[in-house]
Amino acid sequence: MQNVATLTTPAGPGLRERKKAATRAALVDAAQTLVEERGLDAVTVEAVCEAAGVSSRTFFNYFEAKDDAVLAHAPWSLDPALAGAFVGGGPTGGLADDLGHLVAGVLSAGVGDLGRVARGMALARTEPRLLQRHLVLLDRHKDELVALVAQRVGDDPHRAATASVLALTLAHAAFQRYDADPAHPPGEHVLPVLAELRALLTE
């Protein structure tokens, strides 16, 4: 007889997590639809909440601002195993390549619903303020990246800062590539972007 344990599948998200995900998706969909119809400046948080069927208080449990909902922004989180491998000198031993793998891993693990992200990036092409907000949200990870790089390279704050700028540049470029080529998620664009940057610097 087959062991029962081998037939057990991991439990999916609980009811609370599914409800939170549904509420977040409803807010993003409402914000993006209203901005497409009216333009960014004509849409208020109250209008988004009314369309999504939630209170303004609920909105701010998910997003800091209307622009974040339009962009379908999901906070990033560094996987401890991924961060540990980077600090330990992996996976390739080259700092730039390992930064690329780190950023690719982060983007592959947690940028949110890709269809909604793509829709948000498309709106950012028509609403410059959204692109500016996207860059601000990316930059929030700079201190975390600097600290992580510093653990690897030691007491060289300039090198750590430069490496973190490279990581943020890779992330931003990957989102731009994803906007143009949504068949491939952002994480898959990181290493090709890094290869092009390296080629440019060696010309």
Tell me what you see in this structure:
The chain is an all-alpha fold. The chain is 71% helix and 0% strand. The N and C termini lie far apart (64 Å). The N terminus is likely disordered.
Features:
203 residues, mainly alpha, Arc Repressor Mutant, subunit A, Tetracycline Repressor, domain 2, 71% helix, disordered N terminus
Summarize the biggest pleated sheet. Answer: none
Tally of helical runs: 11
What structural class should be given to the helix and strand makeup? mainly alpha
Strands, count: 0
> Which fold does the CATH topology of the largest domain refer to?
Tetracycline Repressor, domain 2
The overall pLDDT average reads: 87
Low-confidence stretches: 1-10
Strand content: under 5%
Percent range of helical residues = over 70%
Describe the secondary structure blueprint for this structure.
Blueprint: H1 15-38, H2 45-52, H3 56-62, H4 66-70, H5 80-87, H6 95-110, H7 114-126, H8 128-139, H9 142-153, H10 157-180, H11 186-201
Give the gist of this structure.
This protein has 203 residues and is mainly α.
